[in-house]
UniProtKB/TrEMBL annotation:
It comes from the Eukaryota. This is Uncharacterized protein. It comes from Anguilla anguilla (European freshwater eel).
């Protein structure tokens, strides 16, 4: 069986930070679009 090598902790932290920042940016953009559409 092939087992993938685990990523170092720093790589995981960077990955999580990127995902969180992108999701926050995406949700804030959605809120802005919804706000302009509602007004």
């Amino acid at each position: 069986m092939y087992e993938p090598t685990p990523l170092p902790i720093t790589a995981w932290k960077g990955l999580y930070c990127t995902i969180i920042k992108r999701s926050l940016f995406f949700s804030s953009t959605l809120w802005q679009v919804a706000g302009t559409a509602a007004s």
